[in-house]
Amino acid sequence: MNWIQMALWGVTAMGIFFGYRPPVRHTRLDHLSLFQKIKSLDLIGFFLLTAGLTLFLTGLNLGGGLYTWTDAQVLGTLISGLVVLLSFFLFEWKGTSTGILHHELFTGGKEKGRTFAICTGLIFIEGIMLFAVIIFYPVLTLNLFETDPLLLVARGQPFWIACVFSTLAYGYVSTKRRSIRAPMFVGFAILTAGLIGLATIQPDDSLNAIIFDGLAGIGFGAPLVLIVAGVQLSTPHHLIATATAVTTSARAVGATIFTAAFSAALSTRVAKYIPAYVPKAALGAGLPPSSIPAFIVALTGGDTAAISQVPGVTPVVIAAGVAALKQAFADGIRVVYIIAVPFGVVACIACFFVGDLRNVMNYRVDAPVEDLHHHKHKGDGDA
After folding, report:
1. Pair 227, 191: CB distance under 8 Å
2. Measured between alpha carbons, how far is 307 from 278 in angstroms, rounded to an integer?
3. Segment 71-96 mean pLDDT
4. Which residue, of 101, 126, 149, is where some domain finishes?
5. Residue 165 structural domain
6. Backbone dihedral angles phi then psi of residue 67, each to the nearest 5 degrees
7. Local confidence band at 100 (pLDDT 50, 70, 90 cut-offs)
8. Is residue 383 part of a domain?
9. Residue 66 sits in the same domain as residue 210
10. What is the distance of C-alpha 152 from the center of its chain?
11. Number of domains composing the chain
12. Strand-pair partners of 63
């Protein structure tokens, strides 16, 4: 898989290197030296954001695993991370007006600044919902339905195939209606429905899991193409690059934070459910109480040789233990989708507050990748 990924990224890099030849553009920073350009960056903001996220994510990953949530190592990194992140937002608000969160991005009324802010929040939520699927749906599949690597990957394709085709539909509808509001609401609603479906999956719901994965893909096509379009249509032309960077970074931040939060919640649930489910099932199938600890260790470790050597184990006991283990994972992993679904509801509501972009959906290209020439047609005046 890594070799395939390397080849794909290599082809992409070559395509950009040999095929991307935009016209030379001049900016108001052309006269600055490299050192002056670096100095003009929001270095303080970069440091505060990076440090705050690092500390906060470290705490999320330590909690519920190596340490309990009340340990000093966890609380210290979580609290200090939140303080540094709060310092970042205060600095961007009061310390600079041209930093990462450039103040001009948030001006201009509901069609401009408000729409940009909402779209940034929406892509933050999109990152939360996306990673709930692409990271934890394979975990669900691996523990409940399929262990073969090829079939495991194949079961995840409905999401991506549905996404590819749905983006075309959402793009067409938004272009014809000259609005992103309604298509984006529909997309988030369908994506949320897919997550609700995944939250209901039981160990014998193999087909349902595939269907809900595909349903989530149909919904994901809308935010995938329309949020960035909304951002670029609602921001000043000279800040399009900054606005796009802020938006994609918001997605990364949301995905990173909540992937760690999902993992912590899943680990906590599974650690609670396995000792509750497996011993009860094994004892009911006839396993001696003295063999329970060894049976749990061997079963959760997937060590078939060790399982067969546990005193008192029988095929009936093994079957009962496997069924209980799958149920523990099913009940544990559904917390990921239970956490993600409310964000989808918030996103659906937020879509109605996106401004009317009809006036700027006019095919005007502010930064074309090729030289464009005006073609005069009969009836045109002098241009």
Report:
1. no
2. 13
3. 92
4. 101
5. 107-362
6. -130, 160
7. confident
8. no
9. no
10. 20
11. 2
12. 67
Domain identity same for 170 and 220: yes
Are 71 and 198 in a shared domain? no
Among 42, 48, 35, smallest CA distance to 102 is for 42
Give the residue-averaged pLDDT of 275-299.
Answer: 90
- Quick check: is 176 in a domain? yes
65 and 207 belong to one structural domain: no
Residue type, 38: I
Instruction: Look up residue 370 and give its two tokens.
Output: 């090729």
d(C-alpha 337, C-alpha 76), whole Å? 28
- Closest-CA residue to 201 (of 223, 216, 189, 185): 216
Tokens of 16: 């950009």
Q: Are 175 and 227 in contact (CB under 8 A)?
A: no
Task: Let me know if residue 368 belongs to a domain.
Answer: no
Helix (H/G/I), strand (E/B), else coil: 67: strand
Q: Is 63 helix (H, G, I), strand (E, B) or coil?
A: strand
Is 219 part of a structural domain of the chain? yes
**Together in a domain, 239 and 155:** yes
Query: At 251, phi and psi to the nearest 5?
Result: -60, -45
Start-end of H helices in 178-239 = 181-198, 206-234
Question: Can you read off the two tokens belonging to residue 251?
Answer: 């997605």
92 with 125, same domain: the answer is: no
CA quadruple 167, 171, 177, 178: dihedral, nearest 10: 140
Structure tokens at 180: 């992103």
pTM above threshold 0.70: yes
The CA distances from residue 300 to 84, 127, 296, 297, in Å, are 39, 31, 6, 5
How far is the C-alpha of 342 from the C-alpha of 257, rounded, in Å? 16
Beta pairing partners, 246? none
> What average pLDDT does the structure give for the chain?
88
Neighbours of 80 (CB within 10 A): 16
